[in-house]
Design goal:
single chain; alpha+beta; Glutaredoxin; 4-stranded mixed β-sheet
């Protein structure tokens, strides 16, 4: 009797466990689906042109990272796209143009990042006296227009959910001058100022040759 009772209890226990596992699996599936469903990427084909659009299905502004891998198109799609999409809006991501006599195909990775810290603000019209205090414990990328390395760095920091701010010195030259005055003590005669210039919380990185190693170095402090 005791053995039968134990078996009955165990059977009941494992039955409950199976139900819990099934419920948890369904819950995670629905949760994962709802996360993916926040931003929907669609395409519209017109002749040899493929227009990719991203639609925000939520009531919040979302930060989005999209990395395309494409073959058979005129435009290389290896450049990541980072954008903010307003609530319930559909925005243009990229236009791909098919090449003659080649099979075309593409895939993409989509990451919706809701955890970035955008608290760092610098005012270009006003001199920031204590810029060290403003930049304390922050990762800041100073970039230039049409700088592919700058775009790639910021995009992959975004992908890895590393909090940072990106300031374009072509748009805010006063901010860059303030920053360079701040790091003047780090400049040596042999220092080459390459972009992007990265303030990594406590020290400066001038450009990079290996993107993955640079991301890894910045990640250590996060």
């Amino acid at each position: 009797m005791i053995c039968v009772t134990k078996i009955g209890i165990l059977s009941s226990f494992f039955g409950m466990n199976r139900q819990l596992i099934l419920f948890f699996t369904l819950f995670m599936y629905v949760l994962g689906f709802s996360q993916q469903d926040k931003v929907v990427v669609t395409e519209k084909k017109n002749g040899k042109r493929v227009v990719l659009m991203a639609e925000n299905k939520t009531a919040d502004t979302l930060n989005v990272f999209i990395m395309l891998t494409a073959q058979g198109y005129r435009r290389s799609a290896d450049r990541p796209v980072v954008m903010n999409i307003p609530p319930h809006k559909k925005v243009h991501v990229m236009t791909l143009i098919e090449m003659e006599d080649q099979e075309s195909s593409y895939t993409y990775n989509l990451i919706v990042n809701e955890n970035l810290d955008n608290s760092l603000t610098l005012e270009p019209e006003e001199e920031v006296v204590d810029i060290e205090n403003v930049l304390k414990d922050k990762v800041v990328v100073f970039s230039k227009t049409d700088c592919k390395k700058c775009d790639n760095l910021s995009a992959f920091l975004f992908r890895d959910q590393i909090n940072h701010r990106n300031f374009n010195i072509d748009e805010d030259p006063k901010l860059y001058r303030q920053f360079m005055n701040f790091i003047d003590k780090e400049l040596q005669e042999t220092t080459k100022i390459r972009f992007p210039v990265i303030w990594n919380k406590t020290y400066t990185i001038f450009g990079y040759d290996d993107l993955e190693k640079t991301i890894e170095e910045i990640s250590k402090n996060n």
